[in-house]
Amino acid sequence: MEHLDVARFFPRNRYSAMLGTQKTASNFIKESVASIFALECPTGTGKTAIGYSYLKAMLASGVKQPFYLVPNKTLAEQVKSLHPDVHAVYGRNEHPCLFYPGENLKADEIPCSLLQECPHRVNQETGETKEPGAERCPYLQQKYEAKQSGGITVATHAFYLYSVFFAKEFEPGAVVVDEAHGIAKAIRSVLEFHITDWNLARMVELLGSILSSQAEVLDHFRKRMIAIIKAKEASKKTILEAEEIRELLDLTNAIDTRAVDAEIRAAIEVGLIDRKKDRLALKQLEILGRDLRMYMRSFEFALPTEVRHPLNFTFAFWRQELEEGKRVQYELVVKSYYVAPLVKKMLPKNVLAYSATIGNADIFSHETGIKGDFLSLPSTFSSLNTRIFMPTDTPNLSVKERNRRDKTKSLRMIAKACKTFSRKSIRSLVVVASNEERKKFLELVAEEGVKALSYGEGVTPRACARQFREGEGDVLVGTDSNYGEGVDLPKGIAPVIFYYRPSYPRPDDPATVFEERRFGNQRWHVWNWRVIIGLLQVRGRNIRSVEDVGVTFLISQQFRRFAFGSLPEWLKPAYVGGKTFEECVKETVKMLS
Ligand code: SF4
């Protein structure tokens, strides 16, 4: 793509003028002959409008079905509200199914692919419903409208992976990847499969009930899987070796999935299964057919070939005794790990990827598979509005360095500081690495008489953050995976953030073992990149506009090694590395009062 004029398509009906950063980005794209771009766009640089203009310019150049990708529905809604002409498409879980009226079921809870006769089915070519005049299936209708619109479609990474890449329902000529630093993690999280003895036993039973020729073959797989798992140490996650995966792959390959599909359909036809009455059994059969294919594909990628190392890993876990209420004794977990080649393959030729935190462009590209012309935009925020405190007297909380009391002592320091702040009506966000630390902190902060909010016991992290935003509590507490990114607390909602320690992988985690084997010492580059991105993301939670004022406390001395060096230039003056914790608390009170 040569000299794409992004500025020409800037939405001037919505914004009176382009920001300096938006002009820089559009000139960068215009002057380049590359077709893939990676932009680091700090908060406030106007990235959504850049992406929107880029896709509009692509459309004008003749490119079809451009997509704007985001990690979740909330962000998709934000893009839609900023640019109402884009079409938002959501997964099945966001739409009701009309085939079972009165049952309040979502489209992902029903065996849709086995209900071809559904009168509400919207033909994706013609737009006609299966039964003329029938109410239109909302899930299929939104996809049909997006295809027909000829405009920009906004969707989640997961929707894109399944509907665009796997199912080939769209053929996008250009894609914007928002929050691109997290795309590998997002893809990994949806490509994780659990194969359990209980599930397999259910599948065998279901196949038996429709007299399937494949019930016995699947049962053989189940028995061998249990034998392989049982040979490992109990209650420990152990990575399977290549020969074991090869054997499991051969056994799954022996299952004729086409025969399974045909037999299920035949069972429906002859009335062995009733579409309405046996909905749950039918759904399980649908999942069975899909899962078998997924297992095969996943095992394949877990094996090395002549041209590549394994991309997935599989670990086994089993319990000596089944606890009451538990049904799974033997389990295999297949995790997609190195998804960069997949991301590369699923994206078209023209890509604009951006994020507030890209950091090292080479490692970003290694992790995400997105390699293009890179530009880091300057921030429009003032470093005077923020501080990044790295106190001199907090402990090093790495497993090797910390002593027995360091964790409790440092969590108590944070709890006491929260108390000081809450007395001045300054609210805080505390981000810890593990659930155990979260619980311990909740205990300590309660002892200080400070009202802290956290999730659990039926309250989701999202709901809890909403309550906090609405004014409940003085402190919001959560782990890195829940509150490290995606939770915005600007305008004084939580002007103080405590970031407890960097989330390096646990040595006993199978993913860590896999990365050690796969990358050797190189793994440290990726791990350090991830913790740097983590730090930059956490720091940005309370500063979302030029007016916001907020500070971040880095607690573990592990941060000292890389924190200053990883900050973008504009933020470096905000780093305070020579004061004690108490001095930092005092400076915060002065700054925020
Ligand atoms: S096509 Fe029919 S069965 Fe499938 S989700 Fe839509 S309404 Fe439900």
Automatic annotation (TrEMBL):
Question: What does the sequence similarity comment in the record state about its family?
Answer: Belongs to the helicase family. DinG subfamily.
One GO MF term, please? ATP binding
Which Pfam families does the record match to this protein? Answer: Helicase_C_2, ResIII
Ranges where the Helicase/UvrB N-terminal domain occurs: 26-192
The protein here is known as Helicase ATP-binding domain-containing protein
Show the PANTHER family listed in the entry: DNA REPAIR DEAD HELICASE RAD3/XP-D SUBFAMILY MEMBER, REGULATOR OF TELOMERE ELONGATION HELICASE 1
Species annotation? Candidatus Kaiserbacteria bacterium RIFCSPHIGHO2_02_FULL_55_17
GO terms classed as biological process: nucleobase-containing compound metabolic process
InterPro entries listed in its UniProt record: ATP-dep_Helicase_C, DinG/Rad3-like, Helicase/UvrB_N, P-loop_NTPase
Every copy of the ATP-dependent helicase C-terminal domain together lies at 424-573
- Highest taxon, organism lineage: Bacteria
